[in-house]
Amino acid sequence: MNKLKFSSQYEGENDVRDVSLEGAINFRDLGGYPTGDGRKVKWGQFFRSAALSDLTENDILHLQKLGIKRICDLRRTNETKAQPNPVIPGIDNVHLPIIPENKDKEQVKQIGELSLHGKQINLGEPGEMLLRLNRVIAHQTDAYTQFLKMIFEEEHVPLVFHCVAGKDRTGVCSSVILMTLGVPEEIVLEDFTYTNKYLDQLRQKVFTKKFIEKTKDVDPKAIDALLEARPDYLKAFLKEITDHYGSFDTYLYENLGISKNDRKDLQSRYLL
Could you say which protein family the record assigns here (predicted)? Predict the structure, then answer.
């Protein structure tokens, strides 16, 4: 857990990475991270989070005070229907699923779905399923193009994006933003593993009676692997990009449709 301090060292006296909410965990600001050319990501522009379906009235007021203009929901349709986001005046909701919509239990899944299917899901070796997931979602280029286009629209920023745990889908989208802005990969990985600070709270949310009953025959190490934000998961995503597209820059310019001038525009807008 020592690495958690690495992300926090970029906070100034008036800057706070972790945003404390009553009904959501792992809500944090992506500001303060340095780029390779010595600039820093502006605070208060991009926020990442776990599920927002349980936001309280106080939480909603907090989001409005933060100036949030848009919530981008990265979950699949079945997840959004089961736990919809609240309607918040002044904030629009966009649904942008990152995992391909499918019903095959053998395909990539998330921790919450174990409470529905339990041991019917083929988890494989501990961590294998999320390595597979992160390789698969590297090819969701249309989704990342739409995601990046959102941040060109000033009327929709500040932006918060989230999935269920705020870990994998949210983590890869964070990496796409940060690397587009020029934040080095090693710092992007630190931001990814920062989620482990919230591991105990995530366990409390996930380990319902139904979940415990459905997963009684599932290897506990496999469940731990699903809950944790392990560096190898994001590395699998980034390696898939390198292996299939050549480099992140090539991926950005040729597959996500973001030109070099577009990138410079985003950097001038969101870096200090």
Answer: Belongs to the protein-tyrosine phosphatase family.
**For the purposes of burial, counting CB atoms within 10 Å of the CB of 24, is it exposed (0-12), middle (13-18) or buried (19 or more)?**
buried
CA angle 170, 78, 206 (to 5 degrees): 60
Other CB atoms within 10 A of residue 51 CB? 22
Model confidence, pTM: 0.90
Residue 111 burial by CB count (10 A; 0-12/13-18/19+): exposed, middle or buried? buried
Does position 272 have pLDDT exceeding 70, yes or no? yes
CA-based nearest residue to 189, from 148, 150, 223, 237: 237
Kindly report, residue by residue over 235-261, the tens digit of the pLDDT: 999 999 999 999 999 999 999 999 999
Q: Which domains does the chain have, with CATH numbers?
A: 4-270 (3.90.190.10)
User: DSSP state, 140?
Assistant: -
> Residue 131 and residue 67: Cα distance in Å, rounded?
35
